[in-house]
Amino acid sequence: MRTVVFDLDGTLADTSADLIAAANACFDAPMLDPVADAGTAFRGGRAMLKLGFERLGAPDVAAAVEAQYHPFLDRYADHIDVFTQLYPGTVAAVERLRAEGYATAICTNKPAGLAETLMARLRVRDLFDALVGADTLPVRKPDPAPYLAAVERAGGTLNRSMLIGDTVTDRDTARAAGVPCALVTFGPDGHGVADLQPEALLDHYDGLFALVDQMID
């Protein structure tokens, strides 16, 4: 079965404001900007905490990050969908793929429990046949294993699949799995993701079906 696997943060939904709010709660004063640091938010909790503690001039940044990582996750879980929104056209695009016989899955470096909660809160969990998170397997993206698991759990076939993402992590994951990758241009890096040389760029979800139909046999 033809399968489309999506990253979550920065690809299906703009989660940056809620992520940054949870990270800022870990500092004595807000250190991260919801707009300027959105790209860092999409690289994960530790990346945000590291940037914030570096700006604070913490004497041991690595230790501070580890000390605040689980409190960050707890704060984020409590306020996971305050500002988060799906990107325009997401629901209609995924619904069309499924209507045309595609399997769909999520492969994210967000912890699986948080990803499940967020998709349920946004009322779109039933649009995806499988969800593989950062802690589903012993490894995470860009290791190809989570991607392979997402395809398999969705009932798909690796050589008839592709990844939709937004960062170098997604590009490297697709390359490691030997599948094509499309990167969205509506994230913080905009058309700068073209420098990662994906097989395609996606400017809006209105164009998803035509792109996927062309790239997956």
UniProtKB/TrEMBL annotation:
Main EC class the enzyme belongs to: hydrolase
One cellular component term from this protein's GO annotations in UniProt = cytosol
What Gene Ontology terms for biological process does this UniProt record contain?
DNA repair
Checking Gene3D superfamilies in the record gives: HAD superfamily/HAD-like, Putative phosphatase, domain 2
Matches recorded under InterPro entries: HAD-like_hydrolase_sf (IPR050155), HAD-like_sf (IPR036412), HAD-SF_hydro_IA (IPR006439), HAD_sf (IPR023214), PGP-like_dom2 (IPR023198)
**Pathway where this protein functions:** Organic acid metabolism; glycolate biosynthesis; glycolate from 2-phosphoglycolate: step 1/1
For this UniProt entry, the molecular function terms from Gene Ontology, in alphabetical order, are: phosphoglycolate phosphatase activity
Q: Which reaction does it catalyse?
A: 2-phosphoglycolate + H2O = glycolate + phosphate
Q: Which domain of life is it from?
A: Bacteria
EC number(s) on file:
3.1.3.18
Q: Which family does it belong to?
A: Belongs to the HAD-like hydrolase superfamily. CbbY/CbbZ/Gph/YieH family.
- What protein am I looking at? phosphoglycolate phosphatase
Record organism = Actibacterium mucosum KCTC 23349
